[in-house]
Design goal:
- With about 625 residues, this protein is of the alpha/beta class.
- The chain folds into three domains: about 240 residues, Glutamine Phosphoribosylpyrophosphate, subunit 1, domain 1, CATH 3.60.20; about 210 residues, Glucose-6-phosphate isomerase like protein, domain 1 (Rossmann fold), CATH 3.40.50; about 160 residues, Glucose-6-phosphate isomerase like protein, domain 1 (Rossmann fold).
- The chain is about 35% helix and about 25% strand.
- The protein is built from 19 helices and 25 strands.
- The strands form four sheets. An eight-stranded antiparallel sheet has the order 3-2-4-1-10-9-11-15, covered by helices on one side.
- A hairpin with a 2-residue loop joins strand 7 and strand 8.
- The longest helix has 23 residues.
- The structure holds 6-O-phosphono-alpha-D-glucopyranose (G6P).
- 6-O-phosphono-alpha-D-glucopyranose binds next to helix 9.
């Protein structure tokens, strides 16, 4: 949450900072601002709302400064008003700071600084930082900006990433990482820092991710890295494998729509990466190739999965697959709950953290908690941690020893779509791998599932092609609807939750996802002709049950929309409207049934004229608790 960017080099900084911030807007867009150093002064321009407001404000006043920092904000402390926008400055307006994170002890620091005569103009936690740095520059032994920032960060508690410039040190940009992501980019005579790589990839592919407790000093001559104690560290950048065109819309009206259409490709890439290409000989230990060490799987008795948001929904599908195919008891937890109320310790337990960004603070904290509480225990209680992420270079990637990399490519739309499908693919591979190794299902059954999985990309393309106009048509009818109910059962219950979440996130329509059989225990009281019900009904275990539950909704005058395979005559009679998917086995159906729900949410939001890619109050990467 919040994006920060910094530049020092030989080009005009303003445009580089603005284009960097554009790529970081997914992290928050309540306000934006940049500060540069020019002719001995800090020039700071800030604007409430999205980046284009800042752009218009900057046009007449931009300087040719070659050093600067920028920020795009997701408000935590203080309303999204201009006076709370970053960069923040000290009273003499000599030091400017941008921050991503939360300074937990800012109240105490503020009081101390007030007693020394400092006056504050914002309600933010960040504003104490430039004041503290200015105070240290004035009073202590710190003889450089680096030293003052180093001393200042040793007073700060919380999780944060910072970039700092000063009018008195025009050739120096200081960047700090403490539990919030920050990468340094190395160009030719120019250097960058940013919360995430897309902000700098059009300038350089040579990057270095700072570790917690590290400070970087960027000058036009190079980058020096220190720890918080002031010791110099030797580190080398690595080359990024990220194509700048991956972060363009490529003719689609919104990133979200483009990303929905990329899903068949994501499934293909996952099949190629996770499954052995020679599927005729299934006699190898497993046809799945996740590259995980055997010790992760041995004697496994329990699995706990921690995640947030859409990743939590993917984890619920994962639980279904692991329990049904591999017979391992699996629990799925909201990371924000689990970190403060973990399950009792069990031996031989695999802990899986699922996070597309690899930066979600609660998910990381839940994993750390699990690791710490197990470290002094007997060997069978030791933490076995597995990460599932779309960003292997993220904080999660650096924290867990083993990972399944999801292969969605960079996702820009704040509402997750293709990364969800990529997470489902990771869980299919994991569950099948476990089932093979533990011999919990007949080889033929598993073989059939893998063969059927290989049919999914083409079925998804057919589903996408048939859905576009149907969902657009329904969106027209439902653009002013106030409440929606989504029903599913079994493996499609998480898809009902995901359908409701997508609609809430981008269209601001109230929606609830419910297990179809539970509807009669409460939500049925909400139903009338004004509340449409979307039911996911796929032939299999619970098909007839879902159809009966749907009839119960219809009897209360709800308009019924069915997400169901094309050929089903019975369903066609029950539902008022159909969003048909290609014929598919129930076990694999979530990868297809989620598609019409994503499109429905997209088209309703687009018809309501909303900002689909950057819905209000949300951020893609939630790096605060
Ligand atoms: C935010 C995003 C959601 C996402 C959730 C978890 O709330 O808006 O789309 O599902 O974070 O993100 P993660 O990166 O951990 O999967």
């Amino acid at each position: 949450m919040c994006g920060i960017v910094g530049y020092i080099g030989t080009q005009a900084a303003t445009e580089i900072l603005l284009s960097g911030l554009e790529k970081l807007e997914y992290r928050g867009y309540d306000s934006a601002g940049i500060a540069t150093v020019w002719e001995g002064e800090v020039n700071c321009v800030r604007a409430k709302g999205k980046l284009h407001n800042l752009r218009s404000k900057l046009e007449p006043v931009a300087t040719p400064a070659q050093i600067g920092i920028g920020h795009t904000r997701w408000a935590t402390h203080g309303k999204p008003e201009e006076h709370n926008a970053h960069p923040h400055m000290d009273m003499a307006m000599r030091v400017a700071v941008v921050q991503n994170g939360i300074i937990e002890n800012y109240r105490d620091l503020r009081e101390e600084l007030k007693q020394k005569g400092h006056q504050f103009i914002s309600e933010t936690d960040t504003e104490v930082i430039p004041h503290l740095i200015a105070e240290l520059l004035k009073t202590s032994s710190s003889s450089s900006l680096l030293e003052a920032v180093r001393q200042a960060v040793n007073h700060l508690e919380g999780a944060f990433a910072l970039a700092v410039i000063s009018a008195d040190y025009p050739d120096e940009l200081i960047a700090v990482r403490q539990q919030a992501p920050l990468v340094i980019g190395f160009g030719q005579g120019e250097f960058f820092c940013a919360s995430d790589t897309p902000a700098i990839v059009s300038h350089t592919r040579a990057v270095l991710s700072l570790e917690n407790g590290e400070i970087a000093r960027l000058t036009p001559l190079g980058v020096e890295i220190y720890n918080f104690a002031g010791d110099r560290l030797r580190k080398q950048p690595r080359m990024l494998n990220l194509n700048p065109t991956m972060v363009e819309k490529q003719g689609f009206k919104h990133f979200m729509l483009k990303e929905i259409y990329e899903q068949p490709g994501v499934v293909r890439a996952s099949l190629e990466a996770y499954f052995n290409s020679d599927r005729s000989s299934i006699d190898t230990p497993s046809p799945v190739n996740l590259g995980l060490p055997p010790k992760l799987y041995s004697d496994l008795e329990q699995i706990h999965i921690v995640a947030c948001g859409t990743s939590w929904h993917a984890a619920l599908v994962g639980k279904y697959l692991i329990e049904q195919l591999a017979g391992i008891s699996t629990q799925v937890h909201y990371a924000s709950e689990y970190r403060y109320a973990p399950s009792p310790l069990t031996p031989n337990t695999l802990i899986i953290g699922v996070t597309q960004s690899g930066e979600t603070a609660d998910t990381l904290a839940a994993l750390v908690m699990e690791k710490e509480r197990r470290q002094d225990k007997e060997p069978q209680y030791q933490a076995r941690l597995l990460g599932i992420t779309n960003r292997p270079e993220s904080s999660l990637g650096r924290m867990v020893p083993d990972m399944i990399n999801t292969l969605a490519g960079i996702e820009i739309g704040v509402a997750a779509t293709k990364t969800f499908v990529a997470q489902l693919m990771a869980f299919y591979a994991l569950a099948l791998d476990l089932a093979y190794l533990r011999q919990t299902a007949a080889k033929e059954t598993l073989e059939k599932i893998i063969n059927d999985l290989h049919q999914i990309p083409q079925k998804m393309e057919t589903t996408l092609a048939s859905q576009e106009s149907l969902t657009e048509h329904l969106a027209h009818e439902f653009a002013d609807t106030q409440d929606f109910i989504f029903l599913g059962r079994g493996i499609n219950y998480p898809i009902a939750l995901e359908g409701a979440l997508k609609l809430k996130e981008i269209s601001y329509i109230h929606a609830e996802g419910y297990p179809a059989g539970e509807m009669k225990h409460g939500p049925i009281a909400l139903l009338d002709a004004k509340v449409p019900v979307v039911a996911i009904a796929v032939p299999g275990n619970v098909y007839e049950k879902v159809l009966s539950n749907s009839q119960e909704a219809k009897a209360r005058d709800s308009r019924l929309i069915g997400v169901t395979p094309v050929k089903d005559g019975e369903a066609a009679e029950i539902f008022n409207d159909l969003l048909p998917v290609s014929d598919v086995d129930e076990l694999l159906s979530p990868i297809l049934t989620v598609v019409p729900l994503q499109l429905l949410a997209y088209h309703i939001a687009a018809r309501r004229g909303l900002d689909v890619d950057q819905p209000r109050n949300l951020a893609k990467s939630v790096t605060v608790e």
